[in-house]
Amino acid sequence: MPGTATIRPARPGDETDILRLIKALAEYEREPDAVETTAEGLRGHLFAAEPRVFAHVAEQDGRVVGIAVWFLSFSTWTGQHGIYLEDLFVEPGVRGGGVARDLLRTLAAEAAARGCARMDWAVLDWNEPAKGFYRRMGARHNETWEMWRVDGADLAALQGAEEAQEARP
After folding, report:
1. I want to staple 66 with a disulfide (CB 3.0 to 4.6 A). Which of 58, 79, 96, 145 is the partner?
2. CATH of the domain at 33
3. Active-site pick, 54, 70, 133, 134
4. CB-CB contact of 133 with 123 (8 Å)
């Protein structure tokens, strides 16, 4: 039986394992070709002088088996920061052993230490195992807010949206 996982902040040298697990998550989420980041890119973001993205890893028997990648958000209504959990992933072979729970608990402690009012994240609509897990952890689905996104060519076009609006008859 594998040993107990240790949860710790990511450190330089973890970026290859973090990328490996990000790619495994993309595969699980049926988007295996969507990952564009690199280990070098992750290193530059996670370990910058003033990082804006953070990660915790779960290490078991000397191997990184889980990740939580997150950043700070802000609520104008509460006037407090929050944690936005971008990715939570645990290798399939160690699921059910409390690794994801321990990662979430560590992030809850991080949120408390930083004076954060909440933690938010998104779940794919078909991912019932994750939804069930999050409910067991005390999370709830916010049915009144939908996530929206603009990216790629649409983001580039949006930069000129004001000029395009003014040019319309």
Report:
1. 58
2. 3.40.630.30
3. 134
4. no
Round to whole Å and give the CA distance between 62 and 55.
17
Contacts of 2 (CB under 8 A, 6+ apart): 60, 61, 94, 97
The enclosing H or E element of 87 equals strand 80-90
Is residue 1 in a domain? no
On whether the CB atoms of residues 21 and 120 are closer than 8 A, the answer is: no
Q: Is 28 a catalytic residue?
A: no
pLDDT at 4: 83
Q: Which domain holds residue 83?
A: 6-167
- Walking along the chain (169 residues) 10 residues at a time, the average pLDDT comes out as 82 98 97 97 98 98 97 96 98 95 97 96 94 95 92 93 54
Q: Are the CB atoms for 157 and 120 separated by under 8 Å?
A: no
